[in-house]
Design goal:
It comes from Gossypium barbadense. The protein has 154 residues and is mostly helical. 82% of the residues lie in helices and 0% in strands. The chain contains five helices and no strands.
Amino acid sequence: MAKLSLSLLLFFFFIFCINIGTVEPLSRAAHSQARAFVEASCRTTRYPALCVKWLTCHASSNTPPTAQQLTRTALTVNLYRARHVRLYLVKVAKELKATKAKEYLFTALTEFPGQRMSKMKATIKSKVLNVAQLTSNALALFHRYAAAAIEKHP
């Protein structure tokens, strides 16, 4: 029985290895098409490098994404990052008194870059700025998708 299951395992492993060589070039071509579509779509956003960074990994399926899928992904990524920042701020609020956390957040958002900031303030500011940039990109993609949909169906 052990020899039979070992033989079956080796057989399936052999079939898997053979299929990898035939499927991989198609996957690479589809991935490069998907990346090209993401890059072209992200050119219209305010932060194209950030857009490409976050959406390329989500658009690596076997088929290039549509404008609707890309817009939905951008909005989903934005929501995920906003929730992540919210959880971080809740954690900070628990570590500090609530009023102190509000002061830190206010200071982090209004301080000038030339002034000296603590590590926590800098972290809060960068996380909030990242979400703001992702929101800008998601809204730009959504606006572009909505405008195209309106043109198709006036």
